[in-house]
Amino acid sequence: MEHYSLKINGNVYETDAEPFESLLDVLREKLRLTGSKKGCDEGECGSCTVLLDGKPVLSCILLVSDVREKEVLTIEGLPQGGEPHPIQVEMTERGGIQCGYCTPGIIMSAYALLQENPRPSEDEIRFAIAGNICRCTGYSKIVEALQAAAGTPIR
Ligand code: FES
Ligand code: FES
Predict the structure, then answer these.
(1) How close is the Cα of 17 to the center of ligand 2, in Å?
(2) By CB count within 10 A, which of 46, 85, 123, 150 is most buried?
(3) What CA–CA distance (Å, rounded) separates 22 from 64?
């Protein structure tokens, strides 16, 4: 076991973990930040997506030992002042969520996109969430919600 001080959502979390544990397992099992979901646990589905220094990464295939000195942002860090982020609002109101298992990962991928490109096209949105698999929605409502959050025209 090693000791880690992890910068997550603007706070410092202290925890002991084995260096070979995944960031996802540490988030969920040690820190009780269970918003990031474990779908495949092998880098295929995107449900575990978090941001590392602002870039989307798959936390199931990232070792906790690789995130020292880096800033992690999880879905729990998006609401401000107790209010959900506009992406969260639009995903909820426009039917972008069914079972919800893919939702945190999709929201984190979309958040990263909007930080770099506040007015993305539909194609850019679809590209940004291409690594996030949703088995329920067929993606149309998700894309519509993300367009609404970005304030771009919806077909
Ligand atoms: S749980 Fe990480 S990619 Fe599926
Ligand atoms: S809402 Fe069920 S997997 Fe996307």
Answers:
(1) 31
(2) 46
(3) 5
Please identify, in words, the CATH class of the domain defined by 2-77. Answer: alpha beta
Which of 3.90.1720.10, 3.40.50.1390, 1.10.150.120, 3.90.1150.10 is the CATH number of 86-150? Answer: 1.10.150.120
CB 58 within 8 A of CB 25: no
Ligand showing the shortest atom-to-Cα distance for residue 61: 1
- Find the helix or strand (DSSP H, E) in which 51 lies: strand 49-52
* Matching fold, domains 2-77 and 86-150: no
- pTM of the predicted protein model: 0.97
* Cα 155 to averaged position of ligand 1 atoms, centre (Å): 31
Residue-averaged pLDDT of the chain: 96
CA of 107 to the centre of ligand 2 (A): 12
Given strand 55-58, what is the order of strands in its sheet?
Answer: 11-17, 2-8, 71-73, 49-52, 55-58
